[in-house]
Every structure is written in C-alpha cells, then in structure tokens.
Design goal:
It catalyses: DNA(n) + a 2'-deoxyribonucleoside 5'-triphosphate = DNA(n+1) + diphosphate. Its EC number is 2.7.7.7. The protein is α/β, with parallel strands linked by helices and 465 residues long. It folds into five domains: 14-118, BRCT domain (Rossmann fold), CATH 3.40.50; 127-197, DNA polymerase, domain 1 (Orthogonal Bundle), CATH 1.10.150; 207-250, 5' to 3' exonuclease, C-terminal subdomain (DNA polymerase, domain 1), CATH 1.10.150.20; 259-395, 2-Layer Sandwich (Beta Polymerase, domain 2); 403-462, Beta Polymerase, domain 3 (2-Layer Sandwich). The protein has 20 helices and 14 strands. A five-stranded mixed β-sheet has the order 6-8-11-10-9, sandwiched between helices. Strands 2-1-3-4 form a four-stranded parallel β-sheet. Helix 15 (261-278) crosses helix 17. It starts with a helix and ends in a 13-residue tail after the last helix. The protein binds cytidine-5'-triphosphate and manganese (II) ion (2 copies). One manganese (II) ion binds next to loops. The site of cytidine-5'-triphosphate has 16 residues, from helix 16, helix 18 and helix 19.
C-alpha cells in the first residue's frame, strides 16, 4: 500500500491537474520555484498548492521562466553551486530567497517586495576566492594575493559580516573587496563573481587544474587548443600526458574527492607503522590542514626526520620500497634533496623547499578506516586512492619545516611578510635569519620561531586564516 500512497501525494492526479489549470493566476510577473532539498517533498507539495490557491504561479521544474527561487537552506550550503549547474540562461535575473519571503507573501496574499534580509547570501569569502582564482588564471598575481588575503581576514572573523560598517578597521580589505561585500549585503550575491563562474575559460581552467599534475600553464595550453573537457583531452592524440598527469586522470574520481579526518588518521597509522618498521626512533609528524584541525583535506601531509642529523639519508627511499612491498603504492614521484646550507638565507620564499620529498597516491582499504571510507555513489570497491605528501628535513631544520608545512599557505606567507617588514628577519622552510644581527637564529621548536619574532605562539588550529 505504501508506495501507492506515496505516489498519490507526489504526482498530481489528472483531476488535480485540471483543477490547477482553473486556479486564477493573479501575479503574472512572478514565477516561483521551490527547492526540494532540505524542504522535503511533501512540504514542497503542500506549499505549492497553497501558493497556487492564492493565485501564484509555481513551476515544478527550474526553467528560465522562474523569477523567484525559494529555499529553506539558510546557510546556502551547496545551493548556489547547485543553481549554477542547472543551466539557466541568466542566473543573475533570478531572486534567490529564503523561505521567509514565501511565508510573508502567503500571509499577505501577494508577492511582498524583496528586501535584502530575504536573500540567501553567498558567503563573502567564497566569492573572494573565485575572484582570486580568476586573477590567478589571468596571471594577475598582485590582485590574486590581495583577494586571498581579504578572504582570509573575513574567514578569521567570529561571525559573518552583516553590515558594511562591520568591516571598518579590518586590515587588507581593498576597494574591490569592499565593493564585493557591499553587493553581497545588498543583493545576496556578487554579479562579477557570477559572470566569472559562467565564463567558459574560467570553467575550463578550473576543471583542468583540478587534475593532479596540471597547473595553470598546462591548463591554459589545453584551453587554447580548443579543448574543454577531460574526454577531449584524453582523445587528443597530440597531447602527451606526463606520468603525474596520467595518474591524476586514472585516479581522478578518488583524489578529487575530499579526505576525511578518519581517513587521514588511518593513513597516519599506515605511514607510522612503515616508518617505524624501518627505523623505530624516527620522528613522524602530521602536518598540513589536518594538523590545523581541519575536518577535510585534499591530501595528507607528513614530515619525517631522525633524532640524529644525517641518519635521515636514505630513509625515504626505504619507506617508498616498503609501501610498494605492501602493494598499496599507486603512484610515486620522489625528489632527492637539493638542500645546501651555504645558499641560505634565500630571498625566494614562494619557491618549493629543497628537502627530500615524495608525492604519493596510496591505496586505503575500507577496513582500515574507523567508520569506513567515504564512497562514490554506486562504488563497491573496498578501497580508495588518497594523495599523500612526505617531506624529510634534516632534524636541525625541523621546526621551520614544520611551520612551513603546517600552513596555511596564507598564514605562513603573512608571517614571513611580518618577519621581513617588522623584524628585518628572513625565514623560509629551511632557516630563520636576522638581517640586523647578520646571523641565523636557532630554532628547535615552532615556539622558538614565535619567540624570535616577538610574537605570541599561535596554535596550529588558529592558523587556518
Ligand atoms: N607547502 C610548502 N611547500 C610545498 C608545498 C606545500 O611549504 N612545496 C606548504 C603549503 O604552503 C601548505 C602546507 O605545505 O601550507 C600544506 O600544503 P597543502 O597540502 O597543499 O595544503 P593544506 O593546507 O594541507 O590543505 P589541504 O587540506 O587542501 O591539503
Ligand atoms: Mn594538505
Ligand atoms: Mn600537500
């Protein structure tokens, strides 16, 4: 009986359908679409009938006729990206509204004037990230950094900005950023951002750079050749993928998906066991986003070193062999050390560090993860592929390497800027140098670095912005 009953509420019977046609349309300029997600099907059906009985037009499908999209999802989590994927001709013409607009309109018996409090807002820092990314694709590095910095500042606030006044006195917000915030406060969205997101080149570059081993330069090259999809790239005989990119495509479905904390923890156990099987007193530290307490990441990062200087030599190659023997190494790019203490201090901070390292793709089995793996729908495999970075600094460089690899990228970048501008000190993943005293400062722990810089210690979980 149940399925029938369910169907009866989900699909209007012919009788109901004809009744609907007879309902008088009072407000021709408005076409409502109710988003089912979070609202649920039965509530959506109820609200649809209610609105129609009051003379509103409600579309069952999201067509270009829709003027008012109403959702129950106040946090806008996923709503905007879902909307963008619906292929509307001009998303900027649609009002995206909270259920409060609908409720008030039902109460008044007419579509009430849309006010800014009705808008479901995009998150301001997400909008800024899009602008930063687009600047990066356009090789405008200065603007890209400015947007990233502004996004970081907004992310670090305890709550969302609700008025322009609230941004006063905040550092690093330029006029472009202010304009974006103002637009989002007024309309719930930023039209420049939406324009970028609809741009063909932006979409292609974003897609291509989501592949492991594909940077903006390669992506641009493919775009210029007229390629727009993975299929077109893989079918283009003139394109020679390198080993990293081949692995990137081969494991794309797995490694483009986020890694959970539980999955990172499981990997930590595997790496720890492997490292300690080879050298019981080796030191292993989880770094990257997971050390900063993030729930999800794009990979899992580790630092490996030894208590005595020099014993780290050869360790990483052993670890790689051992992972290979366990049959869980899907991809490995090893880079030997190019570290040379006589070349310090370096002024080129954005460059890769010189430590021995490897970029891996590792197989993680279902039963190794507490609570199981995060799965793709319809996937019955008992494992997934995960990106892992292992870096091996000599122990006397451990603290600076740990700080650098813990990130976030923006936090470390700004700390370096502060050191240079305010303290006349240079530091990177290898060393901390005092330009006034013309000497290197010794650092055994991260705390030492903060002490030298004359700053209070900042816990890893406070380094996200
Ligand atoms: N890093 C670095 N040198 C590199 C690569 C990365 O110093 N050659 C630093 C980055 O600046 C970052 C940290 O190592 O602060 C971790 O890098 P990454 O894994 O890319 O970022 P996460 O912060 O871990 O973010 P995610 O969760 O997306 O992995
Ligand atoms: Mn990481
Ligand atoms: Mn990484």
């Amino acid at each position: 009986v149940l399925p029938n009953k369910y169907e009866a509420t989900a699909v209007a019977s012919p009788k109901q359908a004809s009744a609907r046609c007879q309902e008088e349309v009072k407000f021709k300029e408005v076409m409502v679409y109710l988003v089912e997600k979070k609202m649920g099907r039965s509530r959506r059906n109820f609200l649809t009938s209610l609105a129609r009985s009051k003379g509103f037009r409600v579309d069952d499908v999201l067509s270009d006729e829709v003027t008012h999209v109403v959702a129950e999802d106040n946090q806008a989590g996923g709503l905007w990206s879902w909307l963008r994927e619906q292929g509307l001709r001009d998303i900027s013409k649609v009002q995206v509204l909270d259920i409060s607009w609908f409720t008030e309109s039902m109460r008044e018996g007419r579509p009430v004037t849309v006010e800014s409090r009705h808008h479901i807002q995009v998150r301001d820092f997400d909008a800024l990230e899009v602008l930063a990314e687009s600047s990066e694709f356009n090789e405008n590095e200065g603007r890209c950094l400015a947007f990233r910095r502004a996004a970081s500042v907004l992310k670090s606030l305890p709550s969302a900005v609700r008025s322009l006044g609230a941004t006063q006195g905040l550092p690093c917000l330029g006029e472009h950023t202010e304009a974006v915030i103002e637009e989002i406060l007024q309309f719930g969205r930023c039209f420049k951002v939406e324009e970028i997101q609809c741009d063909e080149r932006y979409q292609a570059l974003k897609l291509f750079t989501s592949v492991f081993g594909v940077g903006p330069k390669t992506a641009e090259k493919w775009y210029r050749r007229g390629l727009r999809s993975f299929k077109e790239i893989l079918n283009e005989p003139a394109i020679q993928l390198n080993k990293m990119q081949r692995a990137g495509f081969l494991y794309y479905r797995d490694i483009s998906k986020t890694v959970s904390k539980a999955e990172a923890q499981a990997l930590r156990c595997i790496i720890e066991e492997t490292v300690h099987w080879i050298m019981p007193d080796a030191i292993l530290a989880l770094t990257g986003g997971f050390r900063r307490g993030k729930e999800y990441g794009h990979d899992v990062d580790f630092l490996v070193t030894t208590p005595e200087l020099g014993r780290e030599e050869g360790l990483l190659l052993h670890v790689i062999d051992r992972l290979q023997d366990q049959g869980i190494l899907l991809y490995c790019e090893h880079q030997g050390t190019t570290f040379d203490a006589t070349k310090l201090p370096s002024c080129n901070f954005e460059a890769m560090d010189h430590f021995e390292k490897c970029f891996l793709i590792v197989r993680l089995y279902e039963d190794q993860v507490e609570g199981g793996l995060q799965r793709n729908p319809g996937d019955s495999r008992a494992w997934r592929a995960i990106r892992v970075d292992l870096v091996v600094p000599p122990v006397d460089r451990y603290a600076t390497a740990l700080l650098g690899w813990t990130g976030s990228r923006q936090f470390v970048r700004d700390l370096r800027r502060f050191a240079r501008k305010e303290r006349r000190m240079l530091f990177d993943n290898h060393a901390l140098y005092d330009k006034t005293k013309k000497m290197f400062l010794s650092t055994t722990t991260e705390e030492d670095i903060f002490v030298h810089l004359g700053l209070e210690y900042v816990e890893p979980w406070q380094r996200n912005a």
